[in-house]
Amino acid sequence: MNYFSLFNLPETLTLDTQALASSYQTLQKLTHPDKFATASAQDRRIAMQKNAQVNDGYSVLKHPLTRAQHLLSLRGLTIDNEQHTLGDPEFLMQQMEWRETLEEIGSDENALEQMQDDIQALIRDKLTALDAMFEEDGSDNEDIANEIRKLTFIYKFSAQVEAQLDKLDDF
Amino acid sequence: MAYSEKVIDHYENPRNVGGFDKNDPTVATGMVGAPACGDVMKLQLKVGENGIIEDAKFKTYGCGSAIASSSLVTEWVKGKTLDEATTIKNTDIAEELALPPVKIHCSILAEDAIKAAVADYKKKNA
After folding, report:
1. Which parts of chain B have pLDDT scores under 70?
2. Fewer CB near the terminus (10 Å): N or C of chain B?
3. Across all residues in chain A, what is the average pLDDT?
4. Could you give the CA distance from residue B20 to residue A68 in angstroms, rounded to a whole number?
5. Is the dihedral of CA A112, A123, B70, B66 positive or negative?
6. How far is CA B73 from CA A81, B13, B35, B96, B117, in A?
7. B33: nearest CB among A83, A95, A155
8. Is residue B63 among the annotated active site residues?
9. Is B106 a catalytic residue?
10. Contact between B53 and B77 (Cβ < 8 Å)
11. Is the CB of residue A93 less than 8 Å away from at least one CB of chain B?
12. Is A80 helix (H, G, I), strand (E, B) or coil?
């Protein structure tokens, strides 16, 4: 299933999120089970399947990471839910250091916010680079996959920093 | 999802947390990560002159199963030769810890950490 065509959007990583949202709303209305309350059992089932596809597609396209995975799977390489282990010592050592720094920072709000800003800047750079790889002719799928895998760690770390910041707000 | 008692035991009382100097020629360092969940694992082995693993330390940022898998592995590798250590299979780890299918990748990560550490040692001492 090509979710980009389902939503009638161009196959790019740099997606117009407003176009995605409005296309989602339109499709959501068209396939909403309420509309098929009096339809035949078969039509109801088809509408329900369509509706589920629309919801799945929206959640995949909404986030850059899953959108990138989907783009790669359209190029023939599926890496979501893979059991693959990343063995890039330099990158992983850096990830370990980030997590150690986060432990040291603890509840220093300014330091946490600075850290989150840095990560977001890095994510933007990585997405730009990834976008270029997707657009370039002759990019190797495995190279793209490795960049996406690295992004997984960075997004996860960003979520951890965010959780730490949220904890501070609770007090 | 409920963790098994063994996972909880290793998670609450992790064995051999820490690290050695990675530049020490007798230290083997294995760095691995699981893109599926973003877990990061560092396993270090201290290798004696006779090629036997004298000590092992780990540091894992991840879920309870990943921490338990690496903690268990540090216990299992001690006293083994490097080649013996690489025969530890993820299925042994998963079975010992009663890991559910969605957590199998944690045991794969621990197995791959041993392999990465041994490869690091061989590269260092080639």
Report:
1. 1
2. C
3. 93
4. 37
5. positive
6. 24, 14, 21, 11, 12
7. A95
8. no
9. yes
10. yes
11. yes
12. coil
Nearest to B55 by CA among B90, B13, B20: B20
B5 close to B96: Cβ distance less than 8 angstroms: no
Length of chain B: 126
B55 - beta bridge partners? B46
Q: Is the pLDDT of residue A119 over 80?
A: yes
The contacts of residue B89 (CB under 8 Å, 6+ apart) are B111
Quick one: tokens of A73?
A: 């799977």
For chain A, how big is the Rg over CA atoms in Å? 20
Collapsing DSSP to helix, strand or coil, A100 comes out as helix
Alpha-carbon distance of B74 to B71, in angstroms, equals 5
Given the residues B32, B106, B109, B113, select the one marked as catalytic: B106
Of B29, B40, B116, the CB nearest to A153: B40
Assigned token pair, B97: 């810890």
Query: What is the rounded CA–CA span in Å between residue B60 and residue A93?
Result: 12
Q: Are B99 and B6 in contact (CB under 8 A)?
A: no
User: How far is CA A82 from each of CA A119, A138, B102, rounded to the nearest angstrom?
Assistant: 25, 24, 11
Residue B24 CA to its chain's centroid (Å): 19
Amino acid B39 reads D
Tell me the two tokens of residue A163.
Answer: 């959780």
Tell me the pTM: 0.87
Buried/exposed code over A87-121 (b: 16+ C-beta within 10 A; e: otherwise): bbbebbeebbebbeebeebeeeeeebeebbeebee
